[in-house]
Amino acid sequence: MAHKTSRFTIKEEELAKALEIPLNRLDEVIEFFDADPDDEWTLKEHDHFVYTNKTWENRIFSAHGAFAIAKYLDTRQPKSIWDKILEFVTHHRQKIRNAFVHKTVHENSSSLTRRNGHYFLSKKDTVAILGTSYARLNKAFEDIRRSDRPMEIAVDFDEFDGIRYYSLSGFYRLSQNLAQSLTSKDRQAWCRAVDMAGKDALKAITSAKERREKQIAKAMSDSRKRDKETCQITLVKKTKHNHLFHMASHHIFSSHHYPHLAAVVDNIITLTGDVHDEFHSWNGGSQNPCTVDDLIQFVCERYPNEPEVLTRLYEVKEIFPHEVPHTQARRPSDQRLLPEDKAA
Q: Looking only at Cα atoms, what is the longest distance across the chain?
């Protein structure tokens, strides 16, 4: 539900600049509006403006209020300012729409995942960002499929665990189709904004993901160097005659459930691949959350003859004493398939 003051978005400084007058001149105009309650010039609180600071009479205006002031100035100045104020309000609304596009993309991109060199969004997130329905999205997909350049599987769309995903190229083609074919002008404008401002938002998100992946990879590499490429439970390390196994960097607090610790070297411990797999099997699978207490319990049950690592783990417990798992973005395998989420 929209906030009760969501119509009021034009600051005094922005309005004065658009009207090409100094702020003190804008104050004079507002004082004139307030001077005679019986004349034709009226600025109404909660209609034309709201106060941001009533003591200092700081206001923020609606488009209706901006037009009222522009109309008054138009009667007092030889040069018409209507075109300028119309252009300002149009651009102002575009900026607000673009800001909400960014907000919507950030709040509905939890499914964003990289497969085969492409980033993909789930159909559910695609519907939410474009502000449409599953049926209407299916129609847009079919329209493109019948065009001279249909979407390509594994390039523009794909299915993971029975759920339709669209790559960013496919997502943009859908937004362009809807921007041209929807009957609602407002929805058309939204989809056009998604095609433009949405690209900036998704580029920022994917860039952040890639930076994050590099940070995590560096932390994992640093942890293996710190541990001298030695399993911290079994003390096994690769040698000239014993090297046919791999070493794993294990997140003591699982990276998916404790993402704020994923790039923290103190939260990563080196294990042989076999011990790493054994732990996750013991813990119910790699998708399950794990903590330092789980690893302590595992060592006590499975490797009671290797107690040295317990000292290390209790040190980790002191470093991170009150960790609570964060809400995790669902990955493709975690999302439930809804009836309307089936392939278009």
A: 98
Q: Which helix (H) or strand (E) holds 164?
A: strand 163-167
CA pair distance 66, 14, nearest whole angstrom? 10
Count CB-CB contacts under 10 A for residue 78: 5
What tens digit of pLDDT does each residue of 49-106 get? 999 999 988 999 998 888 888 888 877 765 667 778 888 888 888 888 999 999 999 9
Predicted TM-score of the model (pTM): 0.71
CA distance 49 to 5: 9
CA neighbor of 114 nearest in space, from 172, 163, 173, 167: 167
Closest CA to 335 of 185, 131, 121: 121
Three-state DSSP class for residue 329: coil
- The DSSP secondary structure of 226-248, one letter per residue, reads HTTTB-TTT--B-BTTB-SS-EE
- Angstrom CA distances, 8 to 3, 15, 21, 96, stand at 10, 12, 20, 11
Contact 88, 18 (CB under 8 A): yes
Structure tokens that stand for 335 in this block: 């999302």
Distances 274 to 37, 226, 279, 295 between C-alpha atoms, Å: 83, 20, 9, 15
CA distance 234 to 299: 10
Any idea which residue has 């399950």 for tokens? 288
Using DSSP's 3-state secondary structure scheme, residue 81 falls into: coil
* Residues 275, 100: Cα–Cα separation, whole Å: 47
Q: Evaluate if residue 329 carries a pLDDT over 50.
A: no
Q: What is the distance between the alpha carbons of residues 329 and 336, in angstroms, rounded to a whole number? A: 13
| Res 34 pLDDT > 90 | no
- Residue 9 DSSP symbol: -
CA 185 → CA 90, 182, 312, distances in Å? 14, 7, 62
User: What span, in angstroms and rounded, lies between the C-alpha atoms of 8 and 64?
Assistant: 9
CA distance 312 to 50: 59
